Known about the structure:
Helix content: 40-55%
CATH topology of the largest domain: Rossmann fold
CATH superfamily of the largest domain: Response regulator
Number of domains: 2
CATH architecture of the largest domain: 3-Layer(aba) Sandwich
Strand order of the largest sheet: 2-1-3-4-5
Largest sheet: 5 strands, parallel
Strand content: 5-15%
Radius of gyration: 17 Å
Number of strands: 5
Structural class: alpha/beta
Amino acid sequence: MNILLCDDHQLLLDAMTASLTAHGHDVVATVTDPFAVADIAAELAPDICIIDIGFPRGNGVDAVREIAQRAPSTKVLVLSASTDPATIREAFEAGATGFVRKQDSIAEVLDAIRQLMNGEIALEPRLLRAAMSQPSSAQASRPDLGARYTLTPREVEVLRLIVAGRGTADIADELHIAKSTARSHIQSLLVKTGVHNRLQVAALAVRQGLVATST
């Protein structure tokens, strides 16, 4: 897996490079400046960019947004010491698809990488629920999202599993359907609700009461 790293601490970059290389990944570049990372991502098109969102100069969320726009094939995994739900939600709405904490182990980082490359969201369910509880600027600009939607029983089942943090493969296994069928149901949910990713559709489900969730 080709990986681009961005953090303002060189020691962390060196440690991450050594750990990821030891586990068979190729770190194609390391960057300390969030203003430069999108240029490098656009040039190298890595499989994954692992990036902090807290910088003394610049905004990591803005960098995530620019990477998503300029290197759309690159998955963005946020690595941060902060678990502020509003910040996590903002990062996901900017284009991130995974989040791990700096205090997590390398095994957890590797697992998040695997989830992203399988087309899944890599975010701890507790943090997912907390992020979903935050106001969404995307929903605020789309007042029609407050309407109720006509979902099939199978789509409701899929939606419940998305809210629970399940990936495509897990949804397919739990519902005893093909992965391609699970992907079709997920795409249908996005189309029907008018949102752009699983985090947004899960947040919509909770906020509009489309499915019940446990705390």
